[in-house]
Amino acid sequence: METLEFEGKTYEEAVKKASQELNVDERDLDIEVKEVDTKGILGLLGTKKIRIMVKLRAKEEGNGEGSTITPTSAETPSGETPLRETAEEFGIAFLKDFGKHVGLDFQVMATDISEKTDRILFLVQCDDGDVLIGKDGEILEALQHLLRLAVAKRFKHNLKLLIDINGYRERRKKALTIMAKRLADKAKRSGKKFKTDPLNPYERRIIHTLFKHNKGITTKSEGEGHTKRVVLTPTGIPFGGDRGGARGGPRGGARGGFRGNARGRR
Known about the structure:
Layout: E1 4-8, H1 11-22, E2 29-37, E3 49-56, H2 87-101, E4 107-112, E5 120-125, H3 138-155, E6 161-165, H4 168-190, E7 194-195, H5 201-210, E8 217-222, E9 229-234
Parallel strand pairs: 5-6
Antiparallel strand pairs: 1-3, 2-3, 4-5, 7-9, 8-9
Helix pairs in contact: 4-5
């Protein structure tokens, strides 16, 4: 099959476009990152656009459980068995190497978040690792984006992954849950919708999941780009119907959403 070109504001958006256009699952695509036009922290956040080259992946024979992904860039002399490496092994090595470059000793392990998802979680333990989290997790998001691009280039595969450093994700999840419940209570009492501060996709998913079966509150993302606000609307008020929506927060309800402590409590 011929190679096709797609682009998007993020890597995920470009891959999604390719998957929908070709009407196949993302796992069936060979993906090459052609161009990354970026700005922002580490040159990764605030991405303007990402261009990828895509073609259908050739079906592999005997692809059962426990199979590994063979790096397409690896070449071995004729007659020799090619080295096989899993994306998890590559990710662990990548993160440890990154740690060495910034003068930090990373202890890394990879695990599935749950049996229901194919998302891989890379758990990093490191002294002074909080410097790689940044304000609201910005640096951590950049590192995660960097690893995702490295995996895509190495394996031609869109691996869903998440990086956590020193338990930051769990602390952030608890803080977001408390904030969202507080905003929901204010929305119900006032009959007005409330908005969070801009959140990344993983953080927005936490809030959407929290209220998925809540009959009193509906949630919807609002905005453009990688980070968006989550709008919490009491049931009965149509989305967009209250343009004077309040922004609840820790300062007397004058401000929207929540800005978690990226470094956590010491």
